Amino acid sequence: MSIRFETDRLLIRDWLPQEDAKQAFQIYGDSIVLQFIGSGKIEESVETQRLSLQRMVNRYAELNNGTGAWAIAEKSSGQIVGTVILKQLPDGAGHLTQDYEIGWNLRQASWGKGYATEAARPAIVHGFQSLNLPVLYAVTNPVNQASIRVTQRLGMTPLGRTQKYYGVETELFKLENPSQKEG
Hints:
Blueprint: E1 3-6, E2 10-13, H1 17-28, H2 31-34, H3 46-63, E3 68-74, E4 80-90, E5 96-106, H4 115-130, E6 135-140, H5 145-153, E7 157-162, E8 170-176
Helix pairs in contact: 1-3
């Protein structure tokens, strides 16, 4: 198991498709969670979840550019509570843009505990310091007030609604790399 980042309460680590599929299914098999994520396509079973995780792990290994979608696990229990994402944003046709996204998906039982903000912070530092990205964006479903509050806690600037990414209307937020801001 490769740990990417660590916080006071969380380990952010690579997904292990075989071992983690059941816990990931608690996130991506939940229609309430999926109403706020992308296409809203719900995983059908633990097995389809395992295959999805394997495809994702393979895709980021192939890219090998420091981006990823990593499991968020509680240190105390080892329980996976969600995913933190640092990746290139796709346009409406699914082609990768030059813009990078910070994102998070959490299982319902972990909503409201500050995990999204806590997991996003070291991923942001990684994006700015290791990948030297000038800016990071977040896109949220316009009705997802909880995610909008996370962007506020992260100090992101709201840019309004856009249809530039994913082919759907989202609220767009940005955070500039503090080391690249002009004096």
